[in-house]
Design goal:
- With about 260 residues, this protein is of the alpha/beta class.
- The chain folds into two domains: about 150 residues, Rossmann fold; about 90 residues, Orthogonal Bundle (ProC C-terminal domain-like fold), CATH 1.10.3730.10.
- It is built from ten helices and eight strands.
- It has an eight-stranded mixed beta sheet, sandwiched between helices.
- InterPro entries: 6-PGluconate_DH-like_C_sf, NAD(P)-bd_dom_sf, P5C_Rdtase_cat_N, P5CR_dimer, Pyrroline-COOH_reductase.
């Protein structure tokens, strides 16, 4: 379905926009000849020759049935486009659907979030919007091409996921870094500590992704086993790990809601 429509990405050479473009092309959901990219310079970079690249965002809107907005939130007001009668998907943090509709004239607006993992087709991209079945299927196909996707009931939840899954590897990297630091301070060579933690998080991610048991189930399983890992998990819980994580995620969500000004 999605490869039969023309899709444009405004801001398609920025970090997130380029990642989405890569995911769309590598999945085959959008053919290169059906993809437009707009940026301020009109530079192609390493995009395939079949992709239409322009500095004229309005030209992209005229040519495309679906427009993905991936510009920095602070630059959104400077973007002058009339997107009436277009399906608009925004991955801009902090910019509401109401604001997007008022500024672009679009009446079919989706607010979504993705991450640079889209380039590897590993992003989780939640979205919300008041759409008919055909448009909802288009959104699901496009975002699903970059990993996995789910419709959520409101923009507040999109903002939560901006903190939870947007900053790849972000919070996961922070936890890995603390474990590496622990190992190094106990005499483990830095290169060995890094190798071990990269492998641990790779294996853990793959196991969690492919296992029917939920993460809290894995935790409880380890606690029930009552071994060395149980001792560590219980100590982390007693030290207030959940409160620390809550504080970090709350701060990220608050920044999401303030970032667009």
């Amino acid at each position: 379905m999605a490869d039969q429509m023309t899709v444009g990405v405004i801001g398609g050479t920025g970090m997130l926009g380029r990642s989405l473009v890569t995911g769309l092309l590598e999945s085959g959901v959008v053919a290169p000849r059906a993809l437009w990219v707009a940026n301020r310079s009109g530079s192609r970079g390493d995009l395939p020759e079949e992709v239409e690249v322009t500095a004229d965002a309005q030209a992209l809107v005229r040519a495309c049935e679906v427009v993905i907005l991936s510009v920095p939130p602070g630059l959104f007001e400077a973007l002058e486009v009339d997107a009436a009668d277009r399906l608009v998907i925004s991955v801009m943090a902090g910019v509401s659907r109401v604001r997007i509709a008022a500024h672009t004239g679009a009446d079919r607006v989706v607010r979504a979030m993705s991450s640079p993992a889209a380039a590897r087709r590993l992003a989780f991209s939640p979205w919300c919007g008041d759409l008919g079945a055909e448009d909802a299927a288009r959104v699901t196909a496009l975002l699903g091409a970059c990993g996995s996707t789910a419709e959520v009931p409101n923009e507040a939840q999109v903002e939560v996921f901006t903190a939870l899954t947007g900053p790849v590897p972000g919070f996961v990297a922070q936890f890995a870094a603390t474990m590496i630091d622990y190992a190094e301070r106990r005499g483990v060579a830095p290169e060995v500590a890094h190798m071990a933690m990269r492998q641990l998080f790779l294996a853990s991610g793959q196991m969690l992704a492919g296992d029917a048991l939920a993460p809290d189930g894995h935790v409880q399983e380890m606690i029930d086993y009552a071994g060395t890992t149980a001792a560590g998990l219980l100590a982390m819980q007693a030290a207030g790990l959940q409160d620390v994580v809550d504080a970090g995620l709350d701060a990220a969500v608050a920044r999401t809601r303030a970032i667009a000004g």
